[in-house]
């Protein structure tokens, strides 16, 4: 009998019962007021007169009028460079002990994002909320006695000018509570291995020693880790190594493109739970099994605003125009794309995180990520979100009965005009003509998106498809950034980056 598991499950269920009704709109109003109160004496707070905003009749409206939008370049150039140089009280009281390194899905140069103690506490608090939400998933008691494999970036953080730097998953793992270390795998020693391939091989060698009940990590890298474990032990699926595996907490990117290839590595179905942990904070998680949408964490040091994703408000580089209006949580509508804006306990103010979201349930503050501001494919008016592209790839998988966990594409100019040029990553042994796949994608997108259909009758000539091994995508990420952690494949590329990609592929295959 799982005595400890029953105790933990009972605590979680009791906590969920006692939590009461939530009001996300009121929680957000309170969070904004607390952020402004805390930061009013910082350089940023004095410059933008937080005291006056706090004294206004409508704090949310006064806040949005007083402070401009900031992307990373703007806030770093104007403010965070002082923080990086060691100056205290710039956009948040004191000086951060950590900086999250993030290149997102574009560029080789890392961004340095302050991670304050308040943000570490916020991430821990959101993690606890997610654990308590497990009461909604009716997990068996013995699940709460199993170990959790968290595959993130290295926890061997780099010392720099009195602070530590690393990816947010590495920073988070290096700050896990002492009571959690009993359950945390691969453990501190292995997690500190900087070389991703060496770390994964070490995990594979020790895998049979652990009783893993849950997995956590970005799908692409976690899938490669599972393949290595299966290959090393010469078994058919991961449940032969970890028979009690019951949950996978996904994050970083949409899970849909990986669903078919991921499930092929399992011996039985498991519960998939989506999360939204970015370098800037823990923003949302799936709180109930009836939906794959994620609930915004509205009471935990992050204030959200939403800008309608419309051509007149978004520049080609993904930045926002000065005229772009922002909406609060009580003003949004379901099934509309919004650019996500956050203000946080890291001292990020009206910060463009780069993601677009849509609400699936406004009352519950539940969202789905629909893409990146830079990655909407709109070169020839097709207005395709990553969400729509994922749907097209999923349809192609089902139609051809193959697995395509990775892809990228570009609206590329050929001699006879623009084409959407796709590269699809698959390890399928089937021989499939690119022309057939192109026709299936084209037909699906015509039916799914009216703007795409119109573009196809005008400037967009058609679709071209090339299949490449899945490993090529991992090698590309390794060559351009670093394997593992928060590194994600760019789904849509500009022509210059796409030319680099095609040159890389030609050398690999």
Automatic annotation (TrEMBL):
<feature type="domain" description="GH3 middle">
    <location>
        <begin position="297"/>
        <end position="362"/>
    </location>
</feature>
<dbReference type="InterPro" id="IPR004993">
    <property type="entry name" value="GH3"/>
</dbReference>
<dbReference type="Pfam" id="PF23572">
    <property type="entry name" value="GH3_C"/>
</dbReference>
<dbReference type="GO" id="GO:0016881">
    <property type="term" value="F:acid-amino acid ligase activity"/>
</dbReference>
<dbReference type="InterPro" id="IPR055378">
    <property type="entry name" value="GH3_C"/>
</dbReference>
<dbReference type="Pfam" id="PF23571">
    <property type="entry name" value="GH3_M"/>
</dbReference>
<dbReference type="Pfam" id="PF03321">
    <property type="entry name" value="GH3"/>
</dbReference>
<dbReference type="GO" id="GO:0005737">
    <property type="term" value="C:cytoplasm"/>
</dbReference>
<feature type="domain" description="GH3 C-terminal">
    <location>
        <begin position="389"/>
        <end position="496"/>
    </location>
</feature>
<dbReference type="InterPro" id="IPR055377">
    <property type="entry name" value="GH3_M"/>
</dbReference>
<protein>
    <submittedName>
        <fullName>GH3 auxin-responsive promoter</fullName>
    </submittedName>
</protein>
């Amino acid at each position: 009998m799982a005595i400890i598991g029953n105790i933990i499950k009972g605590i979680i269920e009791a906590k969920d019962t006692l939590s009461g009704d939530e009001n996300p709109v009121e929680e957000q109003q309170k969070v904004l007021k607390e952020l402004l109160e805390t930061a009013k004496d910082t350089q940023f707070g004095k410059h933008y007169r937080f005291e006056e905003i706090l004294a206004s009749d409508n704090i949310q409206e006064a806040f949005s009028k007083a402070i401009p939008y900031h992307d990373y370049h703007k806030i770093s150039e104007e403010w965070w460079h002082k923080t990086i140089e060691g100056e205290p009280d710039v956009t948040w009281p004191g000086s951060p002990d950590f900086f999250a390194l993030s290149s997102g899905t574009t560029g080789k140069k890392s961004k340095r994002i302050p991670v304050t103690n308040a943000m570490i506490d916020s991430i821990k608090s959101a993690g606890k909320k997610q654990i308590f939400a497990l009461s909604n998933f009716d997990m068996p008691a013995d699940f709460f006695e199993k170990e959790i494999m968290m595959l993130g970036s290295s926890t061997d953080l780099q010392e720099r000018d009195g602070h530590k730097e690393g990816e947010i998953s590495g920073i988070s793992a290096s700050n896990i509570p002492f009571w959690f270390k009993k359950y945390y795998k691969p453990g501190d020693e292995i997690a500190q291995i900087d070389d991703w391939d060496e770390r994964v091989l070490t995990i594979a060698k020790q895998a049979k020693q652990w009783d893993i009940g849950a997995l956590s990590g970005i799908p692409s890298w976690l899938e490669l880790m599972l393949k290595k474990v299966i290959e090393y032990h010469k078994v058919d699926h991961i449940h032969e190594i970890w028979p009690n595996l019951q949950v996978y907490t996904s994050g970083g990117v949409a899970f849909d493109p990986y669903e078919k290839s991921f499930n092929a590595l399992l011996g039985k179905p498991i519960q998939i739970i989506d999360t939204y942990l970015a370098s800037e904070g823990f923003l949302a998680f799936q709180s109930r099994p009836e939906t794959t949408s994620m609930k915004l964490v509205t009471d935990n040091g992050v204030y959200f605003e939403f800008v309608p994703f419309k051509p007149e408000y978004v520049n080609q580089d993904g930045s926002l125009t000065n005229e772009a209006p922002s909406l609060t949580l009580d003003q949004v509508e379901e099934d509309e794309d919004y650019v996500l804006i956050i203000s946080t306990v890291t001292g990020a103010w009206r910060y463009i995180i780069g993601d677009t979201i849509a609400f699936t349930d406004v009352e519950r503050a539940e969202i789905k990520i629909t893409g990146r501001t830079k990655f909407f494919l709109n070169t020839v008016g097709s207005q395709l979100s990553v969400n729509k592209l994922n749907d097209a790839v999923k349809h192609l998988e089902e139609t051809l009965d193959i697995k395509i966990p990775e892809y990228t594409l570009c609206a590329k100019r050929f001699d006879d005009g623009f084409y959407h040029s796709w590269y699809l990553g698959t390890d399928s042994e089937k021989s499939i003509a690119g022309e057939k796949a192109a026709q299936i994608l084209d037909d699906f997108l015509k039916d799914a998106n009216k703007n795409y259909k119109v573009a196809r009758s005008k400037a967009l000539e058609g679709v071209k498809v090339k299949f490449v091994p899945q490993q090529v995508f991992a090698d590309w990420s390794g060559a351009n950034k670093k394997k593992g952690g928060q590194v994600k494949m760019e789904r849509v590329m500009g022509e210059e980056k796409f030319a680099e990609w095609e040159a890389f592929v030609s050398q690999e295959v």
